[in-house]
Amino acid sequence: MPIPAKTAVRRSVVSLLTQDRELAGRVQAALVAQNLSADHVPFDARIHFPPFDFADALDSDCLLVDAHVPNADRVYATWKQRDWDDRPALLVLTHEAEAVPADAPAEIDGVVPTASTTLLRRLVETIIDNRRLNEEVAELARFAALGRTLAGVLHELKNPLNNILGALDRVKSLIPADEKLSRWNDILERNGTLLREALADLLDGFRFNLEPKPTPLHPLIDRAIAYAIAADVNHRGRIGIERRFHEKAPTVVGNAGQLLHVFLNILVNSRQAIGEVNGAIVVTSRWPEEGWVEVEILDNGPGISEDVLPHLFKDRRSTKRSGSGFGLSLVHDVVVKHGGRIEASNGPRGGACFRARFPAQSA
Q1: What global pTM score does this model have?
Q2: CATH no., domain 210-362
Q3: What is the pLDDT of residues 77-86, one digit of tens each?
């Protein structure tokens, strides 16, 4: 089944190695025609003439090799040296009624007569679509395994946390009244309670069999702010939160725990990016078009490096030295699962800016 272009994570690359410029023109015309279709993963076509840059050519999703290319045996040998999951698909282009070149590896993905540009186009479409589909299945399996692990960790945290809160309540009943000590006890109790509620909400997010329900978005964002910012005793009021909520309150149909994870993750990232200095986070909701709500989270931290921005929600890229890169990948997956989209940029005055859009209705 073809993959709609709008779901592609990135454009794929098809490389042709040839010394025949007439062939190069016909192949490129066939591939450019493919790119006019919205039914397949889009790709860029690169033509390589001798002398060849093997490293650049092999950094492709599909490699087309003219059977008459000089030193074809070196091309095949270099291709075979790559790990199986790191090598491009390989198609050999033969002229007229030629047989498969004797030096071509047995593992090639196909042989195409150079006159059959339509067949070539269809093979490339199929190869690119299948490779992308396999990548997406592997990515989903990886996140499913991670989700099961995180759900187990969250569940195991519940009992120790309940014990801590129970012990704190017992300590409060045993010690004499002291204003300063009571203040710290209240902070511990309030944060422990918030953490317990957050664990319950996040565990709901990992129960994928839950029926989607209408979820008011503004109260959900308020809870994320409480968990991520207000409950952090170390910030001591140095991070200001400004809510610019639209008067028409939005409701999104989905899993409240998963949606909470989206805003909680972004807000925690903003808090950590601001660091130990005074900072500000502005949370805005708006209706950019009928039936869609957009939530924008803008901080005044150092922003996101330009080389990281294009890959922020994929390839496990992290903006933190100790980060795993899983957080924002999961955020992206949750937003897409709810029929939305998310993007990141740097604000006009610096700082990171995240915008998430969801199909919504007014409460």
Answers
A1: 0.53
A2: 3.30.565.10
A3: 888 888 777 7
